[in-house]
Structure prediction request, 220 residues.
Amino acid sequence: RKEVEQDPGPFNVPEGATVAFNCTYSNSASQSFFWYRQDCRKEPKLLMSVYSSGNEDGRFTAQLNRASQYISLLIRDSKLSDSATYLCVVDTGTASKLTFGTGTRLQVTL
Amino acid sequence: SQTIHQWPATLVQPVGSPLSLECTVEGTSNPNLYWYRQAAGRGLQLLFYSVGIGQISSEVPQNLSASRPQDRQFILSSKKLLLSDSGFYLCAWSGTREQFFGPGTRLTVL
Prediction:
C-alpha cells in the first residue's frame, strides 16, 4: 500500500462547479496534514494545513478523518485559475519529513 | 520573510559530467533542508535531508550526494551524471511543520 494515495484524475469541471479530492494515508502515527498546489513545471506551494476539526480558507475546505485515515479538499465555485495539480501531504513523524501523494490534476474549463 | 533560492533554473548536461546544484535560504536560522527530485509525470521523491551543518541523511541509494557547508546553504552534487538523473530538482526548508520550496532546477542529462 502506498503511504499516501490519491486519485490521479484528471478532474475536468466547468467554472463555478464544486469539486472534491480525496486522499488516504497509511501511517497512523502521522500528526500533520497539508494540501499543496503545483502548477505545471513549477514548485509545489502550500495551499492549506488540515486540522482535525476541519478548516476553511475562502472557497477551500479541508477535512481530516483520523479514524479512517482520510483527508479531503473541497473547492467551491471553481475558477479557471484553480487548474493545477493538488498534492496531499502527510508527515512521517521524523525530522519534519513529509510524504507527498502523486497528486490529483484539476482542469477548470469555461 | 523567508525566501529560498535555487540555481540554475535549467541545466543540460552530458552523461558522465559532474553536477552541482545550490540552494540558499534567507530570513531563517537553523532550518531543516531537503532535496527532492520529481521525474516527469511522477511524485516527489525525497533524496536528502539535513537538520544542521554537516548533518546529511540519505533517503535512497543513488548517484548523488549532498552537503551543507553553512547553516542556510544546501548543495546537491554528482561526480558522474546518468541519464536517469534527469528530472526536476527541488530544494525545500522547514521550521516546524510545513515545507516551503524553491523554484527548482530542471536537469536534462543527454
Summary: The two ends of chain B are 38 Å apart (CA to CA). Chain B has a mean pLDDT of 94.
